[in-house]
């Protein structure tokens, strides 16, 4: 969440950040609460001063042997008044805290202005999209149907927006996950963790999914718990409520999980294939870093995700999200978009974000500077490295052959047990 002290001292800067986001933050309502809170604090201090004076009068009367009953009665009334004022102040503090949970992060100064996706500038484009001179490009769900992508049986099992993968496609999914994990561990120094797929509401509050995005989550009936929408949630919350030594920073984790999203508001979008599912695999990168280096770390994190696309020889581009398209908790985000020839466009395959101290404040994740006494909040970053289903879709569309077979990218062949070409199921020996 936002730093309340910063918000109190810099309301104009916060209002400007919310305006860049096109977020309707009611600054007047916040300032009215602040005025009420300050008035209460002043009243409490006045009452406490009166109580101290009355206590001194009681002591004086007792030394003089005088009757202090009337003063004691007044003291009781003052104590009751102070208690009532304190309770009102606590209620306002709770209201402010609840309000802050629904306020997004302030965009970083280098986040471009803009209203939405159409305003996101391209930072760089890597690779050349493949030409299809001899046969038309095809969408991955059509290619995959002959290779073991079974949507019909998935509907029978679970409903829409699920898939079943058979044979070589199931192995390709496993190969992609293993290759991504191995690359991030060996080449980039991440520590692999395996986490639960069910998390508490406190964990989702910590990373910013709750209360804002409750309708996009799968809730466990009868419990304050949810299926994870991304590994970002459990991995970031590994250090919730902790104070890390400065020497431990930067700290990087990689985690492969299934992710579960209700896809609220996406009715009719990407209903076929692997692009927008209720359940999908993802390899996630999470970093805890020093505030002074977090933007250098964002560039590094983004390069780690790009390295997977480069190794798979998939054309892609990097775009900087404008303020109006920025994720709720992020101060700056790069999206990686892979080229899908069947759709004739780039599609998001990873978002790499710097949340600064926004998540760390919500989850109370601090570090202790070496030689310093006062703790500070870490900066958290995360990015997909990569979304596995979308990566599979890109492999199918970019490496399909005229006969419907698909060439396996060279780096994946060892993970496929030496299989270099995926053959349609009817052609396999």
UniProtKB/TrEMBL annotation:
First-listed, main subcellular location of the protein, grouped into a coarse class: cytoplasm
UniProt GO cellular component terms: cytoplasm
Keyword flag Nucleotide-binding: yes
Domain Aminoacyl-transfer RNA synthetases class-II family profile per the UniProt entry, residue ranges: 171-409
Transmembrane domains' residue ranges: none
Gene3D superfamilies tied to this protein: Bira Bifunctional Protein, Domain 2, Serine-tRNA synthetase, tRNA binding domain
One GO-annotated biological process of the protein: seryl-tRNA aminoacylation
Binding site for L-serine: 230-232, 261, 284, 382, 384
Pfam families: Seryl_tRNA_N, tRNA-synt_2b
A GO molecular-function annotation: ATP binding
EC number: 6.1.1.11
PROSITE patterns, per database record: AA_TRNA_LIGASE_II
Reactions this protein catalyses: tRNA(Sec) + L-serine + ATP = L-seryl-tRNA(Sec) + AMP + diphosphate + H(+); tRNA(Ser) + L-serine + ATP = L-seryl-tRNA(Ser) + AMP + diphosphate + H(+)
Residues involved in ATP binding: 261-263, 348-351
Pathway membership: Aminoacyl-tRNA biosynthesis; selenocysteinyl-tRNA(Sec) biosynthesis; L-seryl-tRNA(Sec) from L-serine and tRNA(Sec): step 1/1
EC top class named in words: ligase
Family stated for the protein in its record: Belongs to the class-II aminoacyl-tRNA synthetase family. Type-1 seryl-tRNA synthetase subfamily.
Complexes and interactors: Homodimer. The tRNA molecule binds across the dimer.
NCBIfam families assigned to the protein according to its UniProt record, in alphabetical order: serS
Protein role: Catalyzes the attachment of serine to tRNA(Ser). Is also able to aminoacylate tRNA(Sec) with serine, to form the misacylated tRNA L-seryl-tRNA(Sec), which will be further converted into selenocysteinyl-tRNA(Sec).
Entry remark concerning the domains of this protein: Consists of two distinct domains, a catalytic core and a N-terminal extension that is involved in tRNA binding.
Name this protein carries in UniProt: Serine--tRNA ligase
Species: Solidesulfovibrio aerotolerans
């Amino acid at each position: 969440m936002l730093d309340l002290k910063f918000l109190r001292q810099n309301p104009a800067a916060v209002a400007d950040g919310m305006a860049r986001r096109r977020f309707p933050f009611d600054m007047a309502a916040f300032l009215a609460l602040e005025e009420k809170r300050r008035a209460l604090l002043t009243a409490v201090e006045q009452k406490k001063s009166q109580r101290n004076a009355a206590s001194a009068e009681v002591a004086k009367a007792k030394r003089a042997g005088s009757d202090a009953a009337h003063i004691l009665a007044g003291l009781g009334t003052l104590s009751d008044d102070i208690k009532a004022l304190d309770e009102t102040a606590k209620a306002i503090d709770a209201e402010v805290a609840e309000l802050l949970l629904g306020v997004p992060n302030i965009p970083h100064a280098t986040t471009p202005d803009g209203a939405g996706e159409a305003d996101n500038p391209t930072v760089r484009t890597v690779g050349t999209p493949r030409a299809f001179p001899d046969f038309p490009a095809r969408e991955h769900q059509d290619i995959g149907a002959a290779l073991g992508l079974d949507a019909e049986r998935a509907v029978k099992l679970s409903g829409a927006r699920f898939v079943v993968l058979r044979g070589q496609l199931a192995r390709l999914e496993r190969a992609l996950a293993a290759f991504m994990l191995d690359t991030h561990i060996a080449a980039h120094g991440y520590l692999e963790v395996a986490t639960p797929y069910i998390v508490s509401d406190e964990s989702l509050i910590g990373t910013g999914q709750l209360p804002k995005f409750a309708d996009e989550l799968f809730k466990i009936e009868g419990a304050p718990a949810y299926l994870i929408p991304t590994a970002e949630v459990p991995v970031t919350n590994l250090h919730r409520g902790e104070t890390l030594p400065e020497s431990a920073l930067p700290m990087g984790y990689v985690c492969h999980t299934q992710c579960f999203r209700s896809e609220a508001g996406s009715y009719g979008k990407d209903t076929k294939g692997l692009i927008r599912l209720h359940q999908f695999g993802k390899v996630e990168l999470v970093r805890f870093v020093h505030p002074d280096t977090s933007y250098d770390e964002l560039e590094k994190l983004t390069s780690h995700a790009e390295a997977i696309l480069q190794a798979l020889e998939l054309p892609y581009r990097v775009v900087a999200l404008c303020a109006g398209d920025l994720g709720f908790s992020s101060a700056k985000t790069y999206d990686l978009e892979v080229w899908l020839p069947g759709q004739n466009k780039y599609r998001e395959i990873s978002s790499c974000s710097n949340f600064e101290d926004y998540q760390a404040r919500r989850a109370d994740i601090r570090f202790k500077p070496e030689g310093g006494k006062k703790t500070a909040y870490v900066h958290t970053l995360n990015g997909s490295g990569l979304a596995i289903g979308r990566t599979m879709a890109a492999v199918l569309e970019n490496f399909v052959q005229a006969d419907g077979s698909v060439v396996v990218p060279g780096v994946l062949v060892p993970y496929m047990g030496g299989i270099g070409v995926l053959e349609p199921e009817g052609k396999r020996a």
